């Protein structure tokens, strides 16, 4: 493979790997900007991946080619409902949000596997017939060099993911809802004094994060694996969490970080087949641990503590100072 | 009701609620919860073999629970027990296989090596937290994945490309013919005594030494501890290191007792994450950890009997465990409920 051919392979694959991370990480941005730590992203993603596959298998005869897209909506819905548990615990019951998130993670994988065994009588589902299709974007695909890199056989979901980042940026920074969201996350008491319902905003934010993580999981299962088993998501949710932090709790930052993590994952799986000498010489394990090590380094080096929303992780108790 | 009683009631109510919701889930999924829980019970206490295996399962749970609880006492949340356990497991198996020494030296050295490996994995988030204020939760999660991939790569390296390490030497093994015969040839091993000894160590450390006092003080209030002249940074690092050492020993239980080797792991063992549940349920006290580990270890092992005896997927137990954590975490609402109940009684 020439260097250009390598790029033609790596860049689309990186974007494909990044799409689920972008959705989930931006979900995390919503939740944490409102002051609710959401470690449960992994569990929510698992839920989404599971629902996406099961819905796809069940309704493929009804919806035909549209099945994967409608599966995304189903996954969004179920994961959003599931995330209400986290909202209730961390907003109304004043639970430790990290612990509640851990419970969500355990519960997500347990419910999904329990249901899979109940429905299929084995540890993983069947393979879906209709995966999310790859499309060529007209006109743009004919641009020399850039065309095959970015616009040939891309997943529609990747385009959606990148668009979502900008929509999320607009919502968080340019709308009244976004302003309220951020104020609740920075100083809930001040927001409360101004007549904003802290718990309403936090509930909304957590449910949005659940829905987006659900879509993220369903994208992953419907593009990468094609079935659902115990190892389908395996840490993607935590990687999204890392992308959110790496991106400084900002949608565009999260987008960049997710793209980078997608690139690192692509290198990890394809390093051995890339015919470039110095990449071949590096053992695959270094690529595997790269996203995690980078996150640690980023936290230690580039990102100060000040970037996290100030009230992140603290339940708001009315009347207390 | 006194505070003490409430503190005891919250976990008990959580367990009951968890089991109750689990029963409802079974009912709605078309399974019989009664036969399910009977199968679970028999899976735990059915015969002496089951009891032996259950106790075997409890040993790493005690150590994982101690690891989480110890860090909690200094105000730190160590989600990295899973990773520390894995490096401990690998180190134990490696040291156990690579050297030929008399047992009286070999076994302690192997256990020590596992503890050190876990401690090293805990040292990184400890240092980052103490010096740069990086949140330990994120770092430990990341360290888990680093551990998973590094250990898998190391297994491949030391075994010459295979997926499994060599068996450990008998001189490093925790296996016990006596315990095994006692329990109808189960894999019960001496690890349970190591675990119980560590419970005593944690209690002694926290309650009877100056170091323990400082660790707890830092957990209560960092600023006050600083003002009182304690070295907060040193205590944070020390807490993570000791926590990691417990986790490393939990890995040694698997390596030296249960399996005698290590295969490449497709995912996490889950023991480290369940350790969070153990610690929470045990209110982060050494004795409470024994209680929590016994409950969750039994549930986890007993669940294996459910698919055969009652035709119910064993994941139902994971659902119950997750629900218990959820309810314990939401203890505030249980407390409120208990208070209301109390007031009504007083009014009458």
UniProtKB/TrEMBL annotation, chain A:
Entry keyword Transport: no
Ranges that cross the membrane: 6-31, 43-63, 69-91, 98-116, 154-173, 203-222, 286-304
Main location: membrane
Location in or out of the cell: Cell membrane
GO cellular component: plasma membrane
Protein name as it appears in the record: Putative ABC transporter permease protein YufQ
Gene for this chain: yufQ
Topology relative to the membrane: Multi-pass membrane protein
Entries under Pfam families matching the protein: BPD_transp_2
UniProtKB/TrEMBL annotation, chain B:
UniProt xrefs under InterPro entries: ABC_transp_permease
Gene: yufP
A Pfam family annotated for this UniProt entry: BPD_transp_2
Ranges that cross the membrane: 7-28, 101-124, 136-155, 188-206, 236-253, 316-338
Membrane listed as a keyword: yes
GO molecular function, one term: transmembrane transporter activity
Subcellular location: Cell membrane
Cellular component terms (Gene Ontology): plasma membrane
Keyword annotations from UniProtKB, A to Z: Cell membrane, Membrane, Transmembrane, Transmembrane helix
PANTHER family linked: ABC TRANSPORTER, PERMEASE PROTEIN (PTHR47089), GUANOSINE ABC TRANSPORTER PERMEASE PROTEIN NUPP (PTHR47089:SF1)
Domain of life: Bacteria
Keyword S-adenosyl-L-methionine: no
Protein name: Putative ABC transporter permease protein YufP
């Amino acid at each position: 493979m020439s260097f250009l051919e390598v790029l033609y392979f790596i860049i689309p694959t990186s974007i494909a790997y990044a799409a689920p991370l972008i959705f989930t990480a931006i979900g995390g941005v919503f939740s944490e900007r409102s002051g609710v730590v959401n470690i449960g992203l992994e569990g929510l993603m698992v839920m989404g991946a599971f629902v996406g596959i099961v819905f796809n298998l069940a309704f493929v005869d009804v919806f035909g080619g549209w099945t994967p897209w409608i599966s995304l909506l189903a996954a969004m819905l179920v994961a959003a409902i599931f995330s209400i548990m986290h909202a209730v615990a961390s907003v109304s019951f004043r639970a430790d949000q990290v612990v509640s998130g851990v419970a969500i993670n355990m519960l997500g994988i347990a419910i999904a596997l329990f249901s899979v065994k109940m429905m299929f009588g084995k540890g993983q589902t069947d393979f879906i017939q209709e995966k999310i299709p790859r499309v060529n974007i007209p006109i743009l695909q004919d641009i020399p060099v850039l065309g095959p890199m970015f616009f040939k056989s891309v997943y529609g979901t990747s385009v959606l993911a990148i668009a979502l980042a900008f929509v999320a940026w607009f919502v968080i920074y340019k709308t009244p809802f976004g302003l309220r969201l951020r104020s609740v996350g920075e100083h809930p008491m001040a927001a409360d004094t101004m007549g904003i319902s802290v718990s309403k905003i936090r509930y909304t934010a957590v449910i949005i994060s659940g829905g987006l993580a659900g879509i993220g999981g369903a994208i992953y299962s419907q593009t990468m694996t094609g079935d659902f088993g115990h190892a389908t998501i395996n840490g993607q949710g935590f990687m999204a969490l890392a992308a959110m932090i790496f991106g400084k709790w900002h949608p565009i930052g999260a987008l960049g970080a997710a793209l980078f993590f997608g690139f690192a994952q692509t290198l990890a799986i394809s390093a051995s087949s890339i015919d470039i000498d110095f990449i071949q010489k590096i053992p695959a394990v270094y690529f595997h641990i790269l996203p995690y090590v980078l996150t640690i380094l980023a936290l230690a080096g580039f990102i100060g503590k000040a970037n996290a929303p100030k009230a992140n992780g603290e339940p708001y108790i009315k009347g207390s100072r | 009701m006194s505070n003490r009683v409430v503190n005891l009631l919250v976990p008990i109510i959580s367990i009951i609620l968890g089991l109750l919701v689990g029963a409802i889930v079974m009912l709605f999924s078309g399974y019989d919860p009664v036969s399910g829980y009977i199968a679970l019970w028999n899976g735990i206490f059915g015969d002496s073999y089951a009891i032996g295996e259950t106790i075997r399962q409890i040993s790493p749970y005690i150590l994982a629970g101690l690891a989480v609880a110890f860090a909690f006492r200094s105000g730190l949340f160590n989600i990295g027990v899973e990773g520390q356990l894995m490096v401990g497991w690998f180190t134990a198996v490696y040291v156990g296989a690579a050297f030929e020494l008399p047992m009286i030296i070999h076994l302690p050295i192997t256990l020590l090596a596992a503890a050190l490996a876990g401690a090293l994995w805990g040292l990184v988030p400890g240092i980052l937290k103490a010096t740069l204020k990086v949140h330990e939760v994120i770092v430990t999660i990341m360290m888990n994945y680093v551990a998973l991939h590094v250990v898998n790569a190391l297994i491949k390296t030391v075994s010459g490309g295979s997926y499994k390490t060599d068996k450990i030497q008998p001189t490093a093994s925790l296996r016990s013919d006596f315990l095994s015969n006692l329990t109808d040839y189960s894999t019960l091993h001496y690890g349970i005594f190591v675990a119980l000894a560590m419970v005593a160590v944690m209690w002694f450390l926290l309650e009877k030494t100056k170091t323990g006092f400082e660790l707890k003080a830092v957990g209560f209030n960092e600023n006050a501890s600083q003002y009182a002249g304690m070295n907060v940074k040193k205590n944070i690092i020390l807490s993570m290191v000791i926590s990691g050492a417990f986790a490393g020993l939990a890995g040694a239980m698997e390596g030296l007792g249960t399996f005698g080797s290590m295969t490449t792991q497709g995912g996490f063992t889950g023991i480290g994450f369940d350790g969070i549940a153990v610690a929470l349920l045990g209110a982060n006290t050494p004795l409470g950890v024994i209680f929590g580990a016994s409950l969750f270890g039994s549930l986890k092992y007993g669940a294996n009997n459910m698919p055969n005896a009652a035709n119910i997927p064993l994941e139902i137990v994971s659902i119950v465990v997750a629900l218990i954590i959820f309810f314990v975490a939401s203890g505030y609402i249980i407390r409120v409920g208990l208070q209301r109940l109390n007031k009504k009684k007083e009014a009458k």
